[in-house]
């Protein structure tokens, strides 16, 4: 029996045409060892929409370095929609020659020469959301072109995808990127429609969990057929998803609006909450004209360390009282980040008694028990130490603002 089975098996492998349909297997798994902490960088969409060209992208790359953003950890310079020109007779995609006269390869080289990484955008459908050529039917050619330019990051959108299933479509582009041979971060952007957190972790490195962000702290922008969402609305939509995030695979609540017009308190709260939920930190403001306040928010190292913590555990809401939410994020080495988020329009007092409020995170198995361990408390926005967990913490949180604490053993 055993011998016959072996013989059949070796026959199957020696006859190329024998097992039909499996001769050209693809690798549908993303590149490993990328985005082990949430990706940090800049993307053109939130501020510039379709108004992108090589001059802007070069200037932004320069500004990322000059403002200290690069030193703080921001790496990716990503061009969103509307960079595309036409496909040639063979089907290869080209950049818009008017907007990118020097070509994408030269732009990628420039970005790389600054020690930064380069990202582009495409769409699984026939056209991008901005009406440019999509990748449908051209996935393997597009991936080949991106690899030849030196692309490091691909955001892959979901407009005009009639008849496609998201999981299959994203696996196709992953296989194409694999075939092209250059490790590229894949940012899945199908707005959370088909539960990408369930199939996305092996296919891509991050997946949008919602529709587009809207530059407003607490409102909804109704466009008729679709809506875009304020910072608080997006935050609420992350409920129930934390178990899916971790090193190399992140929930993506969309790019940052910090520096795009909200007041500093709201920008700070937005940035803090994205840090607490281990979100990718892709800025979307004009880095060439940042205010001092915006730069200080985006480059606060201690807050960035909360986001970039190696454990990669997404934080959670522990309680809500009088419009103040208490959020916790377990960090490496038994540390904890604790945020009091005031969602109301007036200042609110907070009091948190560490001694009587032990916390256990069932997901990460981390424990915060101040009766067993005394933690040092530091206020990360005030940049001041704030005693220990022997004493209850009390403060007033301004309207639409946060107090963010770091607890260290
Ligand atoms: C979609 C995406 C946005 C942006 C635009 C570009 O709406 O969700 O993030 O990429 O398309 O057209």
TrEMBL record:
Give the EC number(s) under which this enzyme is classified.
3.2.1.22
Q: Which domain of life is it from?
A: Bacteria
Q: Which reactions does this protein catalyse?
A: Hydrolysis of terminal, non-reducing alpha-D-galactose residues in alpha-D-galactosides, including galactose oligosaccharides, galactomannans and galactolipids
Keywords in UniProt for this one? Disulfide bond, Glycosidase, Hydrolase, Plasmid, Signal
| Sequence ranges assigned to domain Alpha galactosidase C-terminal in this UniProt record | 322-407
Q: What class of enzyme is it?
A: hydrolase
- Signal peptide range: 1-19
User: GO molecular function, one example?
Assistant: hydrolase activity
InterPro entries cross-referenced by the UniProt entry:
Aldolase_TIM, GH, Glyco_hydro_27, Glyco_hydro_27/36_CS, Glyco_hydro_b, Melibiase_C
Sequence similarity: Belongs to the glycosyl hydrolase 27 family.
Query: In its UniProt entry, what is this protein called?
Result: Alpha-galactosidase
């Amino acid at each position: 029996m055993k011998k016959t089975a072996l013989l059949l098996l070796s026959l199957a492998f020696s006859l190329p045409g024998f097992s039909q349909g499996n001769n050209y297997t693809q690798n549908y798994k993303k590149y490993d060892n990328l985005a082990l902490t949430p990706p940090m960088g800049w993307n053109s969409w939130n501020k510039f929409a379709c108004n992108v060209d090589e001059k802007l992208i070069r200037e932004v790359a320069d500004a990322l370095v000059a403002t200290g953003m690069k030193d703080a950890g921001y790496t990716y310079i990503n061009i969103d929609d509307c960079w595309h020109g036409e496909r040639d007779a063979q089907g290869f995609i080209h950049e818009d020659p008017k907007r990118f006269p020097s070509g994408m390869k030269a732009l990628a080289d420039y970005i790389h020469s600054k020690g930064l990484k380069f990202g582009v955008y495409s769409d699984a459908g026939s056209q991008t959301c901005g009406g440019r050529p999509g990748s449908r039917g051209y996935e393997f050619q597009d991936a080949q072109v991106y690899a030849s330019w030196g692309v490091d990051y691909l955001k892959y959108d979901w407009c005009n995808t009639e008849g496609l299933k998201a999981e299959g479509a994203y696996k196709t582009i992953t296989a194409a990127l694999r075939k092209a041979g250059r490790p590229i971060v894949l940012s899945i952007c199908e707005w959370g429609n088909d539960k990408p957190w369930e199939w996305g972790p092996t296919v891509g490195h991050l997946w949008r969990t919602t529709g587009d962000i809207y530059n407003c702290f607490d409102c909804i922008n109704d466009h008729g057929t679709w809506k875009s969402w304020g910072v608080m609305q997006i935050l609420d939509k992350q409920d129930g998803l934390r178990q899916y995030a971790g090193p190399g695979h992140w929930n993506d609540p969309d790019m940052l609006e910090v520096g795009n017009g909200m007041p500093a308190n709201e920008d700070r709260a937005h940035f803090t909450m994205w840090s607490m939920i281990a979100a990718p930190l892709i800025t979307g403001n004009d880095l060439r004209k940042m205010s001092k306040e915006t730069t200080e928010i985006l480059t606060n190292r201690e807050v960035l360390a909360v986001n970039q913590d190696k454990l990669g555990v997404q934080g959670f809401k522990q309680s809500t009282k009088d419009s103040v939410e208490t959020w916790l994020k377990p960090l490496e080495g038994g540390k904890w980040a604790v945020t009091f988020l005031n969602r109301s329009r007036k200042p609110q007092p907070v009091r948190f008694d560490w001694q009587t409020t032990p916390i256990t995170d069932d997901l990460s198995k981390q424990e915060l028990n101040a009766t067993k361990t005394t933690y040092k408390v530091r206020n990360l926005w005030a940049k001041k130490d704030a005693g220990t967990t022997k004493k209850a913490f009390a403060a007033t949180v301004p309207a639409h603002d946060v107090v963010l604490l770091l607890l260290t053993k």
